[in-house]
Amino acid sequence: MLTCIPICTRFRPLSFEVPKPLFPVAGVPMLQHHIEACAKVPNMKEILLIGFYQPNEELNRFLLNAQQEFKISIRYLQEYAALGTGGGIYHFRDQIVSGSPEAFFVLNADVCSAFPLTEMLRFQKEHGEPNSFVILGTTANRKQSMNYGCIVENEETNEVLHYVEKPSTFVSDIINCGIYLFNPDIFQHIGAVFQKNQQDMLLEEPTNGWHRAEAIRLEQDIFTALAGQGKLYVYKTLSFWSQIKSAGSAIYASRLYLNQYHTTHPERLATNKEGSPKITGNVYIHPTANIDPTAVLGPNVSIGTGVTIGAGVRVRESIILHGANLQDHCCVLNSIVGWDSTIGKWARVEGTPSDPNPNDPYAKIDSETLFREGKLTPSITILGCNVTIPSEVIILNSIVLPHKDLNRGFKNQIIL
């Protein structure tokens, strides 16, 4: 199994402190949801993480803890440059095939899903040739489908007949989820693209080196060519799925995972009991958090390690990261409160949710732009690490960079 780790600037200022794939969603690092799903697949031998991040102490600690918890080998392979979704696995193909795997999964790190991996394996055995490849697909509405890779299938066989990445006009309402089941034959197809890229580069004028023969995109370079050849199939899931491109989408992803905990990890969900805060809906509370019993939490709230929450505090649709201090009677709605930040008494920190349309079962979360018509797009409020909000002020739809000590309220601003 491979998890391709993307580089993302849309997650700032939170990604200043922690690599985006390690950002906690529903109480655990984003990548842990992927690893848990992979560890449940029968005969899974190894998990490889591929990315362009410089490994640091936090990543190494996460890998060590995950190996101990899931009893499976987990290694991080660092690309020498950002090589794209296909170039990364091609660069490390010898590592991938060294154990002679019959098949392997590729999961993009920035997706939230129920990860129906065993179902994909079963589907692959029942459909097509033994050496076929499988894309996980889901249904989007007509307008939003054009923001994703679109799949035209044979409705009887589920073969992918046509694949277009982010088309300019409507192609299909079946979209690519960024979760794939391959076998080693895929490297022949990626290798052919690599050879072509090398030949094209020889014919081109010398460039500044930005274009690399190894920079290969599975979606545009591989799937488009494989479609209609009897090699590529789509398994459509009815389970939840969403991208996690921005900090706002992390709150929505947290809601999806917290809801899934009812069946997968009920022990992670807080319950109402005497001497504890009032819980509404799905809430995760780390055991080390210190919360006044008069606080009201939920729905969709995650409380990290060592968080302190005072009397009468209200938190809803938010992620509170470790070490944060929410003082008496403050209110936090649709926000992410950064590590070791403090919100003063009676302060209000509020954002605008960026959820999909609840009346459309096929709606997906929109990839929001930071600015619209020259103004900051109303979205969730984000406090970077070690931010101090004074008492009795309102912070609305704003992004506060780390280590800021505010002295007044702000609305629709980025505080640098």
Protein model, in words:
This protein is of the alpha/beta class and 416 residues long. The protein has two domains: 2-243, Spore Coat Polysaccharide Biosynthesis Protein SpsA, Chain A (Alpha-Beta Complex), CATH 3.90.550.10; 269-411, UDP N-Acetylglucosamine Acyltransferase, domain 1 (3 Solenoid). It contains eight helices and 34 strands. The strands form eight sheets. A seven-stranded mixed sheet has the order 5-4-1-6-11-8-12, sandwiched between helices. It has a seven-stranded parallel sheet with strand order 14-17-20-23-26-31-33, with no helix packed on it. The protein has a seven-stranded parallel sheet with strand order 15-18-21-24-29-32-34, covered by helices on one side. β9 and β10 form a beta hairpin. α3 (84-91) crosses α7 (218-226). The two termini are 40 Å apart.
